[in-house]
Amino acid sequence: MSDVLNLVRADLAGFGGYSSARTAKLSGDVWLNANEAAWANPGDEGGSCRRYPEPQPAALVTALAELYGAQASQVLVGRGSDEAIDLLVRSLCEPGRDGVLFTPPVFGMYAVSARLQGAKAIEVPLLDTDDGLVPDIEAVIAAAIAGKAKLVFLCSPSNPGGKSVPLADVVRVATALAGRALVVVDEAYGEFADEPSAVSLMGQYANIAVLRTLSKAHGLAAARIGTLIADAGLIAVLRRVQAPYPVPTPCSALALAGLSAQARALTAQRVVQIRDERVRLQDALAQLAVVSRVYPSDANFVLARFHDAEAAFQALLAAGIVVRDQRAAPQLGDALRITLGTPEQNDRVIATLCALKATA
Ligand SMILES: *Cc1c(COP(=O)(O)O)cnc(C)c1O
């Protein structure tokens, strides 16, 4: 039994989860064990949805394992990485006792899942440095130990901060917290970064897990396909906690089509283009008098501070451009996060903010 299994809630030891009609490994050519309809719905051309899906579609698990450089046994497919975050918190944290550590300003789902589970939220603010918003690694380690964190979320590249966490820092946290906490590296934007995936560390450090998603670089946000890569024993536990049929057949079919060699090649080209656009938007924003700071970004968005963020937000809105208002986030009272769009869309952002300068 691997060490990380000791991090699972004690009361879930031996929990078998729901035993679905698809759990038992039976074979036959007439399936009358799940009360499914005998005929397909006329709206279901091809009839692919008449029967319940495989809980973890084998072809998709294989494709995702290959995509992310993991073993199939280390992969859990869920309804977006959001579901994986929730499964981790529910499976590892005892309400009222265990903690979930994250580094604000950061993606909101860690806090939401912790709150819903009644787990303590342990917040270690990012440091605003010349290199951008970065985690305070020593403070993360100290707070995790003091607050009995079972989970430490490192968002890399971070949303909305934009910076990758160097693998050396991930190793420092994982080493210091071995036996105490699982270090979850959320790589939702990993495709846009230079830093290698923390999956490469998992052979050496069993308490590292990685979140990936098809929602961002792969352009399949509505398919809701997220992947957790973790210790195989832990994945087996989480599969028992997960809902019975979490991956709808049309979604896994779409994901498989989106991971064909041809689709992946096109996605890779688009990532290159977004990275070029990132430099272009950052350079343009840095020239504007209305902008007070442009943060470095390893992701598909740019975070910037404005002398008058409200005026900038409203000017963009009036031009039909909706960006993310970050002003309610800690440390970001004057900041907007702009997702990189097509070159034409980015041109519109730049032109709108240029015009704002003229009237300011
Ligand atoms: C967008 C995002 C996700 C959510 O991904 P889904 O797979 O669509 O649930 C996870 N983490 C971060 C940091 C994100 O920005």
From TrEMBL:
Cofactor(s) named in the record: pyridoxal 5'-phosphate
Keyword match Transferase: yes
Biological process per Gene Ontology, one example term: L-histidine biosynthetic process
Reactions catalysed according to its record: L-histidinol phosphate + 2-oxoglutarate = 3-(imidazol-4-yl)-2-oxopropyl phosphate + L-glutamate
Keywords: Amino-acid biosynthesis, Aminotransferase, Histidine biosynthesis, Pyridoxal phosphate, Transferase
Subunit record text: Homodimer.
Protein name: Histidinol-phosphate aminotransferase
Gene of this entry: hisC
